[in-house]
Amino acid sequence: MDYELIEDITHADVAVRVKAASYDELFVKSGRALMSEMVENPGDISPLIFKEGVISGDDIELLYFEFLNEILFFKDAESLLLLPEKISFAVINDEYKCSFRLAGEKIIRDKHIFRVDVKAVTMHGLRIYKENDLYIAETVFDV
Amino acid sequence: MATLPGIIGEAACMPDGHSGYGFPIGGAAAIDPDTGIISPGGIGFDINCGVRLLSTNLTYDEVHPRMKEIVDAFFRGIPSGVGSDGIISLSSGKFDDAMTGGVQWGVKNGFGDKNDIECCEENGKIMDADPACVSNKARERGAHQVGSLGSGNHYLEIQVARKGNIFDREIAKLFGIERENSIAIMIHTGSRGFGHQIATDYLHSFSRLQTKFGYIPPDRELACAPFHSEEGQRYFKAMNCAINIAFLNRQLIKHRVTEILHDIFGKKSGLRVETVYDVCHNTAKLEKHKVNGNLKELLIHRKGATRAFPPGSADIPEKYRNAGQPVLIGGSMESGSYIMCGIEGAKKTFFTTVHGSGRVMSRHQAKSRFNGRDLQKSMESRGIYIRTASYSGLAEEAGGAYKDVDEVVASAEKCGLGRIVAKLTPLGNIKG
After folding, report:
1. N or C: which end of chain B has fewer CB within 10 A?
2. From CA A96, how far away is CA A110, in angstroms rounded?
3. Which B residues 152-191 touch A at CB under 8 Å?
């Protein structure tokens, strides 16, 4: 598991901590953490369908919030299980931007083993900070 | 939540309360709409997550020998689990109508009857719902999910009123539990991806506007807007659309339950399946309450908490007006559920009471303690037949992960937050 669970934040939901060497990697790992909380076998999600987009935010936390919610949107709107494949992060004129490419496939009940449905990414305690050389994100998923 | 602008009196946490995000689960706050705010974090992502109770004239002796057949039929016929589509998929125009019509749209389109309308909070249709305030993303997430359970702690449960578990026979009878061994069905679900997206959209939007509004909340999840601001009104009207879709969601499931029971018990003449009541857990509603002796309109935020109006309230069905509002307490799948009725004592919480057991164990703690398949077998040996779309999810919902529901409702009664009417014991359950 490429992320940690934070046990003392919420009983009904799931709190995770992700560490990475860059923002790009932080977003990729966080997207995988989100999918791993929903699906027991995320490694079995085949990269057959691709979704690309560009999002922007006033700060890094809002950008992160929006990025993870993109994955949840496609899960409900198009029944897609998507994992981040490529992230490109930039700060332009004080605006945080992220272009992403997600890869995955339609939900197949006999193939994908579900844990729970993550309804939303919350802003409760949402924090992205740098410690030593690592970027760290802490967030709560509403289950 | 106690720091929110415009809060009146005390912020309240119910006996089933536990840690959450923004508000605790089981939190309630009354806000003065003229000076205060509306906050998505005080309502939750699953807008109008709620419970509907159905009464039947089936008895334990009729149902028990066919429990597997019934549960299996419910599991096949009622969409559940991640990625499940709903009983109906709505075109854009019809979805807009459903957003404003709620249960009344369902009944008009052949999915229920007049009693279903009468026996829902707000008659199954809250006013001030405006589809123009709903994003395309929310529409795309929600239009094909109406009439589905979802997952997590959502369920449909077949329950029985066992001997000794009817505590107020007169009110229980009024609430459709006519005698011991009567069978009831409880539905727990909400507005699905539609409500989740509306909450996400406005939380994001409000979060960017806190400086403009001059209030920086202690937690970003409590981002909010002045109720009468343009932004606050847009969220209120979008949230009301989600309230109506959740009402309709439970209505469609009730309709499918009725069809399935008629298929199974077709030979029983006069089979009756009726909505007892439908309560909301996650809402912000404009209600009139007394403040310092004067009647005042307040915006009551409830998150994981149930409205519980007392006898005499004009906002509850006429047939229940002498008894008080039915309050439906969904316990864990192992322990049982309760019916209570609203009483005057709950005025201190702006007529708010408990909604369930309340968790004591995190989801991961529960998963490490319980095994879903073992739990299913153990429950079957105890007379509870369960089907699930996720064994991992089942383990997370084990009874041991929750507070003792008997103690929770006893606490609520002792606090004056309602009166216990009956306990319902699980016999069969489908979980998403």
Report:
1. N
2. 39
3. 152-153
Residues of chain B in contact with residue A125, where contact means CB-CB under 8 angstroms, are 21, 219, 221
Has residue B267 got a pLDDT over 70?
no
ipTM (interface predicted TM) = 0.95
In chain B, the residue whose alpha carbon lies closest to the alpha carbon of A70 is B137
- Cα B115 to its chain centre, rounded Å, is 18
Contact B225, B204 (CB under 8 A): no
CA B412 → CA B215, B355, B419, distances in Å?
34, 10, 8
> Is B64 assigned a catalytic role?
no
* B69, B260 contact by CB (below 8 A): no
**pLDDT (tens digit per residue) in A83-122:** 999 999 998 888 999 999 999 999 998 999 998 899 999 9
Classified by CATH at the fold level, domain A4-142 comes out as: Archease, Possible Chaperone; Chain: A; domain 1 (3.55.10)
> Min CA distance, B5 vs chain A (Å)?
19
CB contact under 8 A, B363 and A62: no
**Token match 């997590």: residue?**
B152
How big is the A-B interface in CB pairs under 8 Å? Answer: 137
Burial of B142 (0-12, 13-18, 19+ CB in 10 A): buried
Chain A hits for B142, CB-CB cut-off 8 Å, are 76
Domain residue spans in chain A?
A: 4-142
Q: What is the mean pLDDT of residues B408-417?
A: 97
Q: How far apart are CA B88 and CA B79, in angstroms?
A: 10
CATH number of B7-431: 3.90.1860.10
